[in-house]
Amino acid sequence: SDCWWDGKLLLNCSLTGVSALPEDIPQTAVTADFSYNNIKTFLCPDGRDEEWMLKHLNLSNNLLSELTLTACRSLPGLETLNLNGNAIHTLTLDIPTPAHGSNRGGKVGYLLPALKVLSVEGNKLNRVPRGLGLLQSLQTVHLTANGIEQIELNDFQNCSQLKDINLRKNNIAEIHPDAFRDLHKLQVVDLRDNALTTPLPQIFLTLNFFQLEVDLSGKAW
């Protein structure tokens, strides 16, 4: 392909017109940029029982509509995943329970265990992706400019490391009163440009937020 490889850490395939990930991605790459292409399907690289060094993956501004991350076991070091500017309406995070005896070396089969930042801005999600709690290191989730209509009780369940949630420019009208209750490290929640009707004090009164951003203009309450 027309991708540029610096021979050690960086693979740059941005604006190359690729429609699929190259099969010869170097396993030593730390950063891979596939933004602004025509990729319709993403399958995690086949590690062939070897772990990749990849920490930062950019798939923004492609043609992705459905995405499954359940098989991404060859990317244990991935820290940031950028999926902005696609047409994703389904993002599957749930993973099956490991078969008995398959837990080699005593390792727990968490999904993308090092992932800290998940960004899915400007897509077509109508709900918060299920299974975020499987991302054990997740600190930041950006879901700006989707079609999310409500925040349910279990949307952020078990997201114990979560610090920053950006839900700006959605269609959120309701938030379950206990949706954020157990997120003890949460510092920032951005709910601007939504259709909130639930009085915020009832939701956030017991939480110790560092920063809460809400546009109060024109709200029913």
Automatic annotation (TrEMBL):
Annotated Gene Ontology cellular component terms: plasma membrane
Pfam families recorded: LRR_4 (PF12799), LRR_8 (PF13855)
SUPFAM superfamilies per the UniProt record, alphabetical: L domain-like (SSF52058)
Signal peptide, first to last residue: 1-20
UniProt organism field: Dryobates pubescens (Downy woodpecker)
InterPro entries: Leu-rich_rpt (IPR001611), Leu-rich_rpt_4 (IPR025875), Leu-rich_rpt_typical-subtyp (IPR003591), LRR_dom_sf (IPR032675), LRR_TM_domain-containing (IPR050541)
UniProt keyword annotations, A-Z: Leucine-rich repeat, Repeat, Signal
Lineage: Eukaryota, Metazoa, Chordata, Craniata, Vertebrata
Protein name per UniProt: Leucine-rich repeat-containing protein 66
